[in-house]
Amino acid sequence: MSKAFQIKERFCITNEVSALSTLILKLKKDYPHLTIGAESTGICHLPVLHACEELNLDCTILNPLLTKQILQSSIRKRKTDIDDSVRIAKLLMQNEGRVMTYQEATDKSKVLVRSALKLGEMNQALRLHIKHVEAILDQVPEPLLKEEASMKENLKTLKKEAIKSVPKESRKLLESIPGVGAWLASTMLAEIGDIKRFDSGDALIAYAGLDPQIKQSGANLNTHGKITKRGSKHLRRALTCAAGIAKMHDPELKKYYTDKRSEGRKYREVLCILGRKVGFRVFAVLKRCTPYEKRETKEEQK
After folding, report:
1. 19-66 per-position pLDDT tens digit
2. Angle between helices 142-165 and 108-137 (to 10 degrees)
3. For residue 126, is it left (φ>0), alpha (ψ between -120 and 50) or beta?
4. What are phi and psi for residue 39, nearest 5 degrees?
5. I want to staple 203 with a disulfide (CB 3.0 to 4.6 A). Which of 85, 130, 198, 239 is the partner?
């Protein structure tokens, strides 16, 4: 039976390493079994991680999707810093989240990859805006065209830096998997980090948020519903993108895709399943430190 939730004390401090360190030391003295955690919110949780690292303490980071789900299930749907802190504390009591280090959160390859992904989103939004302007004015103002060209060039340069920032040996291993190129391999490596922290392929799939939601009602158990989306959206996107490419070149995935689509399964649903298959290949390749070996189909063996 879980312990009843009770608010002991409240504090309001600046989100700075020095202030957080002072507070954590005080709380650790008053509450020896203290659990420290924060919600992953851009860069706002970094000072907490930094303070915990300096004090040699663990810090649990929560996916914002968890707190959002609690907010949506509440009646009043209030969202303030005070309410958020209570939700985070309740989730920590339920052993949600995972321990993360400051070094992991500020990893160079992850920062570069995510920066490139963000710039790519901005570039795509600008292209859509240019199309909209062109449809109205029949021409595109020169400053917009220059901005698009500049952003495209910067994105290309940033991607090259991101690719160089990941271990070349690991990247080449992933590139042996059908559908995985240099950029997708770099994205996967940046998001996965040390593969040793995953005990199984299922754990990696769960981290990517590609594991199916489990719904049980009485004797009925459904494990084929929507995906949880509780992990890294960047890893999830990279795996499904690789799956979309692989289904056109890999005989095994191509046959699986064709069979499931003929059964009436939706495109996105089948793509997520293929993404899981790619994820298991990624796990196996990184764990074994050997390139992917293609399995021959019965037709190819003939």
Report:
1. 999 999 999 999 999 999 999 888 899 999 999 999 999 999 998 877
2. 160
3. alpha
4. -85, 140
5. 198
Task: Count other C-beta atoms under 10 Å from residue 8's C-beta.
Answer: 8
- For residue 259 the two structure tokens come to 């069979």
The two tokens of residue 27 are: 């709380």
- The backbone torsions φ and ψ at residue 2, rounded to the nearest 5 degrees and listed phi first, read -75, 150
pLDDT digits (tens, 9 = 90+) for 73-94: 665 556 677 888 888 998 999 8
Q: Which helix (H) or strand (E) holds 72?
A: helix 64-73
Entry field: residues in the chain: 302
Residue of 275, 281, 279, 210 whose CA lies nearest to 245: 275
**From residue 99, how far is each of 83, 192, 253 by CA, in Å?**
23, 14, 35
Per the CB < 8 A criterion, the answer to whether 273 and 211 are in contact is no
In this prediction the pTM is 0.81
